Amino acid sequence: MTDIKNKVQGLDPNVRARDVGALVSDTANVYESLAIIAKRARQLGVDLKHELNSKLEEFAVQSDTIEEVVENKEQIEISKFYERLPNPVIIATEEYLNGELYSRFNERRRLDDEDDED
Fold first, then answer.
1. In the predicted model, is pLDDT for residue 68 greater than 70?
2. What is the pLDDT of residue 92?
3. Cβ-Cβ contacts under 8 Å for 53 (sequence gap 6 or more)
4. Does the pLDDT of residue 54 top 60, yes or no?
5. Less CB within 10 Å around the terminal CB: N or C of the chain?
6. Nearest to 24 by CA among 36, 11, 38
7. Domain extents for the chain?
8. Residue 24 or 69, more confident
9. CB 11 within 8 A of CB 86
């Protein structure tokens, strides 16, 4: 996971318009391309969330009373760092456009569709 954090440091976290032709260059179908990007974004989101929660637990302070609120500066800094990271969809889109994602299509489903047509 550390590789993702280091890799995305230079990415612009703002959303910008994309060339649809570049998105469909590998799959020839915009919906397949978006499905690939969405699936990778979900993976990234889950991984980042697990990593954030594990880092926050390292600095968690157990208190006996519910009303006592303790602000931990380390937890605040870690949270701010993760908030500044680009959205997982932006990261996944960049990975897709740079050719860093591997995808495959389930051929069995395609063959079943062809059998239905006959």
1. no
2. 93
3. none
4. yes
5. C
6. 36
7. 2-117
8. 24
9. yes
In angstroms, the CA 36 to CA 96 distance is 8
First to last CA, the chain: 47
Structure-token pair, residue 118 = 């006959």
Residue 111: which H helix or E strand, with range?
Answer: helix 107-117
Q: How confident is the model at residue 47 (pLDDT cuts 50, 70, 90)?
A: very high
- Distance between CA 82 and CA 84 in Å, rounded? 5
Cβ-count burial 51-88 (b if 16+ within 10 Å, e if not): bbeeebeeeeeeeeeeeeeeeeeebeebeeeeeebbeb
Q: What is the four-CA torsion angle of 76, 78, 84, 89, rounded to 10 degrees?
A: -120
Note whether 37 and 96 are within 8 A (CB): yes
Residue whose pair of structure tokens reads 């890799």 in the numeric block? 7
Q: Tell me: the pLDDT tens digits for 84-105?
A: 889 999 999 999 998 998 888 7
- Residue 27 contacts residue 20 (beta carbons within 8 Å): no
